Amino acid sequence: SEIQGVPEDLLFFYKHLQKGGGVLRVNRCLLLYRYHPQAATHSVHEETIWNHRVKFLEDRVLSTWTSFTIWNAGKQGKKLYRSLSPANRKKVTAFCDVDEKKIAKGFYTFEESEERPKPKIPICHFREATPPFIICVKQDLTGGAFETNLSMLNLKEGRDYYHFN
């Protein structure tokens, strides 16, 4: 049987933040990781890390918001939506995107839901969307287009949006 690892560094970091610790950027190497085939890090499942990240987002950010928009109507945005607690799914007012095909669909139907009728979440262009946002777009992947779109909205990170990617 395969033993599942624990993302100790991530959990340590989250506990540090929860206790009021800060984060500073230092432009030099402070820690060197050595990877080898038997390294414990390989036993940590991606889904385990994802679930810890979602829980942290819910506890630290979404618990203080009454509603929000998920920026990305694609795979990552929908995965985040499906991973949220039922209470936090109800806070999602829309998905926003730049992809005309996704926007043309008009909404995302949460097919896995037990609710009847199944929840339908609108999909709109980012310019029509209402902050705050949880952004599920990988940075440096759009040749600067995403960063340009975000900066044109004059939002403040940590208040109007958080990155989750």
From TrEMBL:
Tell me the GO molecular function terms.
glycosyltransferase activity
Q: Which domain of life is it from?
A: Eukaryota
Q: This chain belongs to which protein, by name? A: UDP-GlcNAc:betaGal beta-1,3-N-acetylglucosaminyltransferase like 1
Q: Which gene encodes it?
A: B3GNTL1
